[in-house]
């Protein structure tokens, strides 16, 4: 299991209109930080994420339904992954995304623990 902690949340990172959260580690540029949730990993061992795994924002549980082809690579290299809270379409799927259920945004604040299990 991997764990990270939310260090900061950009002003434009969370919108009820877009069912998407963009995560980066602390290496994100200032411009990216405006649109991102910055996470700090507790360990350097990044586990490969697969369909059927779970993602937790504190106690809020999500099931991973689809993993984009470069999602694991981006997570390992720069702590970057997009979490999409809707059905994965065959044509418009993001290459760096995890598509999860339920289709509702989590409550996130600084200090929220994200667990990849």
Q: Can you describe what's shown?
A:
This protein has 117 residues and is mainly beta. The chain has one domain (2-116): Beta Barrel (M1 Pyruvate Kinase, Domain 3), CATH 2.40.33.40. The chain is built from two helices and eight strands. It has helices spanning 30-33, 71-78, and strands spanning 2-9, 20-24, 37-41, 54-57, 60-67, 81-84, 97-101, 113-116. An eight-stranded mixed barrel has the order 1-3-2-6-7-5-4-8. Strand 2, helix 1 and strand 3 (37-41) form a beta-alpha-beta unit. It holds the Pfam family PTSIIA_gutA. InterPro entries: PTS_IIA_glucitol/sorbitol-sp, PTS_IIA_glucitol/sorbitol_sf. It comes from Vagococcus carniphilus. GO terms for molecular function: kinase activity; protein-N(PI)-phosphohistidine-sugar phosphotransferase activity.
In brief:
The protein is mainly beta.
Counting DSSP H or I runs of 4 or more residues, the number of helices is 2
Radius of gyration: 13 Å
Class of secondary structure makeup: mainly beta
CATH superfamily: Phosphotransferase system, glucitol/sorbitol-specific IIA component
The profile of the biggest β sheet is: 8 strands, mixed, barrel
CATH architecture: Beta Barrel
Structural domains: how many: 1
Write the layout of secondary structure elements.
Layout: E1 2-9, E2 20-24, H1 30-33, E3 37-41, E4 54-57, E5 60-67, H2 71-78, E6 81-84, E7 97-101, E8 113-116
Pfam family, one: PTSIIA_gutA
Protein name: PTS sorbitol transporter subunit IIA
GO molecular function: kinase activity; protein-N(PI)-phosphohistidine-sugar phosphotransferase activity
């Amino acid at each position: 299991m991997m764990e990270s902690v939310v260090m900061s949340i950009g002003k434009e990172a969370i919108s009820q209109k877009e069912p998407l959260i963009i995560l980066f580690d602390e290496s994100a540029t200032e411009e990216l930080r405006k649109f991102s949730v910055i996470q700090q990993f507790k360990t350097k061992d990044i586990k490969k994420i697969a369909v059927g795994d779970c993602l937790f924002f504190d106690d809020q549980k999500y099931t991973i339904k689809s993993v984009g082809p470069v999602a694991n690579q981006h997570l390992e290299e720069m702590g970057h992954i997009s979490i999409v809270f809707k059905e994965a379409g065959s044509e418009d799927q993001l290459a760096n995304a995890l598509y999860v259920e339920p289709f509702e945004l989590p409550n996130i604040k600084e200090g929220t623990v994200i667990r990849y299990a």
